[in-house]
Amino acid sequence: MDVTTADGPAPRFNAFAASCPSRRLLDTIGNKWASLAIVALGLKGPMRFSELAARIEGVSQKMLTQTLRGLERDGLLTRTVTPSVPVRVDYELTPLGLSLLEPIRHLKEWAEAHMGEVDRARAEYDGAGA
Amino acid sequence: MDVTTADGPAPRFNAFAASCPSRRLLDTIGNKWASLAIVALGLKGPMRFSELAARIEGVSQKMLTQTLRGLERDGLLTRTVTPSVPVRVDYELTPLGLSLLEPIRHLKEWAEAHMGEVDRARAEYDGAGA
DNA sequence: CCGTATCCGCAGAGATACTG
DNA sequence: CAGTATCTCTGCGGATACGG
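Above: the input entities. Below: the structure tokens describing the complete assembly.
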């Protein structure tokens, strides 16, 4: 989709432009359902479609399918279809997907440690404004 | 949207629901321009509005203003207005904002290390599909 | 120089119903 | 059970013009 940047031989990574890998990563894990799916699979191991749907609770079939497809495409998880009478599909993190749990954990830790401050700052800001 | 989690004593953080702090954090740093602004300020120290606009390059005034306001509201940066003849406004990360650079750095490192694999997986997936 | 206000277009999220 | 297809509608994001 991104044809904006010509086609340089990926000279450096520190670009602030859209071609930066970090930006693309944020598009993935910054996505509401994608991060939840990754964390869910990371905590519980392989899961079926309906398990994930129940676990995340709030996601629609469409969004879940779309999200999982994207993650599969990115090589973060595998999709295994067992053609039994009721079809069974299992999703499992690849090593690559598992490795992504680490930075996500750091994010989570920061959130748990500091979101209280953010809430306070927000309340104060809103209060002062009003 | 049930209000069951109205004001509990923050029992656990592992919720997959929207009330989880991690989710809210993702809303912030998952935002295209917010992360770039934070990283820019982290690398270069205090910056003026126009500096940021030039640095990020691609952001509109509206989006930049909106983003910076949001980050200010969250206590991640400070906004200092110097009422000179042409108004001068400086933005600077707070300690809280600086601390956020750490998990972001982890993300960046993962991206630089693994986005190549993601690209390959994506190419293979697309190729096999077609 | 910095910011606000307004309008508009479009991608994406959700609900629903159907197929294998 | 898992997934696709279709429709609608919100609201983000961009361009523009104006104010302090």
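Note for the figure: The domain at 20-127 of chain B is CATH 1.10.10.10 (Arc Repressor Mutant, subunit A).
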